[in-house]
């Protein structure tokens, strides 16, 4: 399968470097480029990409706003955020908006290629554990209004779904969850899909963030 990719960055040298880096792989097809977040809707409408590689800081419409608007649309492509920071509050907000992960601009080319492939296959490019570390570093402990809202949302889950959600929040893989909760891996995948649908979330990263917000990673695993 060929992965259709759009690159959005206000630095033409960065775009040229990414195009050179990614364009040599047979399974990646760079179908469009943009220099600002305001270019994204038109590019996506014209080229129907599978993945958008999105810079955060752009002059008119930043990557965060563009990600929020894009991921709110049905059938939206996956978004990978480009950043120069390991722990940046805007990265966290992009993950909350539905970005599938982030890569640093100085990441080795092979790792960026691997990240695009993983996202196109439906996997986030960072583990829930890394997301939790990012969130803790940037945002600290969740405030009470956010905690209450997250807890209310998770209350919609059945007990077994809640256990799976907490395990995802702890960074467990499907195989690890299966062993821990005495399930098969396909059953775990079914539960994860059901949780995403029931809570209106995009990916496992958002499950992890919601579980963190609800305070369920502090020994209150709700099991």
Topology of helices and strands:
Elements: E1 3-8, H1 12-23, E2 28-34, H2 40-47, E3 51-55, H3 63-71, E4 78-83, H4 89-97, E5 101-104, H5 109-120, H6 128-139, H7 144-154, H8 159-169, H9 174-181, H10 185-199, H11 204-213
Parallel strand pairs: 1-2, 1-3, 3-4, 4-5
Task: Summarize the entry for a quick read.
This protein is of the alpha/beta class. Helices cover 52% and strands 13% of the residues.
- Could you estimate the helical fraction of the residues in percent? 40-55%
Strands side by side in the biggest sheet = 2-1-3-4-5
DSSP strand tally? 5
Low-confidence stretches: none
Observed structural traits:
single chain; 223 residues; alpha/beta; 11 helices
Task: Please characterize this protein's 3D structure.
The protein has 223 residues and is an alpha/beta fold. Helix content is 52%, strand content 13%. It contains 11 helices and 5 strands. It has a 5-stranded parallel beta sheet with strand order 2-1-3-4-5, sandwiched between helices. The chain is globular and about 50 Å long. The mean pLDDT is 84.
């Amino acid at each position: 399968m060929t992965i259709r990719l759009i690159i959005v960055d206000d630095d033409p040298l960065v775009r040229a470097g990414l195009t050179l880096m990614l364009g040599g792989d047979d399974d990646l097809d760079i179908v469009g480029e943009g220099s600002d977040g305001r270019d994204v809707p038109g590019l996506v409408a014209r080229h129907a990409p599978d993945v958008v590689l999105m810079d955060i800081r752009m002059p008119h419409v930043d990557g965060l706003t563009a990600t929020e608007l894009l991921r709110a649309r049905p059938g939206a492509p996956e978004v990978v955020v480009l950043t120069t920071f390991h722990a940046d509050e805007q990265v966290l907000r992009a993950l909350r908006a539905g970005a599938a992960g982030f890569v640093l601009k100085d990441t080795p080319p092979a790792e960026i290629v691997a990240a695009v492939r993983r996202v196109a296959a439906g996997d986030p490019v960072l583990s829930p554990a890394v997301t939790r570390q990012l969130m803790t570093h940037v945002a600290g402990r969740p405030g009470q209004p956010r905690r209450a809202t997250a807890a209310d949302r998770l209350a919609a889950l059945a007990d077994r779904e809640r256990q799976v959600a907490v395990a995802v929040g702890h960074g467990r893989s499907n195989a690890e969850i299966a062993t821990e909760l005495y399930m098969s891996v396909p059953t775990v995948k079914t539960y994860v899909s059901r949780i995403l649908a029931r809570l209106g979330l995009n990916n496992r990263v958002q499950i992890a963030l919601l579980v963190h917000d609800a305070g369920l990673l502090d020994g209150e695993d709700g099991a």
